[in-house]
Amino acid sequence: MDRDEYFGYAGKILTVDLGSSAYVIKPTPYDMVVNFLGGKGFGAKILYEELKPGWDPLSEDNILVVATGPLTGTLMPATGHATLCTKSPLTGIWLDSHCAGFLGPEIKMAGYDAIIIKGKAKKPTVLVIKDGKVSFEDARYLWGKLIFETQDLLRQKYGEDCQFMTIGPAGERKARFANIVSGGRGFGRGGSGAVMGSKNLKAIVVKGTKGIRIYDLDGFTKICRESYSELVLSPDTGGGRPKYGTNSIYSFMIEAGTHPVKNFQTGIFEEVKECNEDVLDKKYYKRHIACFSCPINCSKASRVDDGKYKGKFTEGPEYENMWSLGAQCGNSNIGAIIYGEHLCDEYGLDAISAGNVIGFTMECFEKGILSEKDIGFPANFGNDEAIIKFIEMMAKKEGIGELMSQGVRQMAKELGRGTEKFAMHVKGMEMPAYDPRGAFGMGLAYATSDRGACHLRAWTLGAEILDTQDRMDPFATEFKAELVKNQQDYFAVIQSAVVCLFLNFGISQRQITRSIQALTGIKEWKTGEDILRIGERIYNLTRLFSMREGISGKDDRLPERLLKEPVQEGPTKGVVVDLDTMLEEYYLVRHWDAEGRPTKEKLAQLGLEKYVV
Amino acid sequence: MPIADHKKCTGCHICEIICSIHHYKEMNPKLALVEIKDSWPWEDKVVICRQCKKPKCIEACEYDALEIVNGHIKIDHDKCTACFECVKACPFEGVVVSDLTGKPVFCDTCNGQYLCVSWCPQKVLSK
Asked: Can you give the pTM of this predicted structure?
């Protein structure tokens, strides 16, 4: 089927081979739509079938899938996302990564539900996609350039109304947590920028002019209108988030002791008076920015007006980076956080991993495992200038930056001396801004997330800390398995419809599934349940993908610090995470065996029999 | 007469989407009769016809392509030569040039409903 037969979908998939500068455009298979929805689901199916186990993620064999979903680029709120799936060079397992902004709608308007990129270009290349026309252009003049300059040059050459995917020097040098930037947003985690770099692909330019058709025009428009009202009425998406952005939870996390400080050594951040969401709002936020079709406008343009970072700016800083370049490094200088985040965007580094790695390095320095001679300067916690230097060194792979750019798992492996106990990662992906010792659900979420330690596969803080009614005990293990499993499955649906996860804080599951039904008119989805079931199918398939790469239940672990080393003060004093109890229950709820493998019965129930590893 | 308070605009493009749905029954911001222009990250600007009583664009057009019909500007794309004199003449920088045709387009008020005004979540637009 092609566009004229689909509603909601663009109806075509573009496959590009960089090695031979060839491309082919094919209709989107109907059974893939019905069974995998879009975005992450499409990526899981395509990569499972086309990648052979054991292939090097930084070789020409790896494949990048950039996909949209049915809701992308539509009138539903917050539909500006695009999804990228590949094998991660940071973890060696499944990776899906999501970019907000305007890229997803542009890809869909160019006529594609997914773009599959294979092979390796012989020289630096820009892939230019303008509707049905695809060209491979010389990018030697861009190689080595920072991201915002690259985007400016591309804009001058290809027009103001294009969208981009760009890598910086970190991606070119294959730093293992290099990101891909689009406008002021990015595919952050897992090193997708290094995959682009390894393919000699400096940038992708997309421009589209095709519209998206609606099955039930009046019904869909009405559902969208209701959704906007629901978002405005929610205290989150209509209150804190529009005002403070993702930092709306900052003080709550500090208060609960779930905001890790100095590489998870403590939960007490004494400098919080000078570094919190109110200070950001009053002193640094200059305006609100929205992604495509989004009334929440959680993004902020920030600028530093005084001090040594005067004039530095960023789109952000996001909550995660307020942590990674802030409390994680014992730093309370917001100017340094803003500049650090800007530098990560310029060089193309994932700021969560970058900050986590810096905190780890600082702890190694303070413990005498790394000396001033090893690093080149004193790197105590709280040294804001060291943070800035480290970011540049990682992006350029200079000095200790070469080792740091490989992530904390590899660093701990090379440094030895017990450092693996406080290398804060799961399956190789650095941990983000929540301490599971203050919210056990997050421990299970990190341990079982399909791409390694990630807060966007299940986010239990709402249920454990923030909810004002029926709040769960954050230190209990009961019901956490179901909570995490249900969120993982539902988030997979959101990430395959390809909309923003923040819709989850404002509108109901029913509203999402109703909108998909009204938009697409697909007969196989008789009820909302039929769509929600796709999430579980996808989550099991990504598990199978990673199992094929050697992952088993033994890898569903947390760093020893969280399991054996309690915090000495504050609200989480004396607590360690009881992971085993939750994990056992989680496997039961998922119908996985004791080694964390999906059972045959479960796979059969999900229609995944043919994918048995 | 839609008036924009540009400072409030966050650049969500919802005005463009609802405009394209009303006029073309599909979602395609590039067909919209209203346009958001951004200068990341500091500014977004709404380009939309204010339906002036004595429109400078009509005065500037040498090809008789513009006229007022039912209180809004109507353009005859056969007569229009894409000289952009109307774009230059508009004191409010309110003439949208379509990406697809390369010619100017003008807000037709959606039969007086002004859907962009009613859907704008930031109340940037008023009439």
From this structure: 0.96
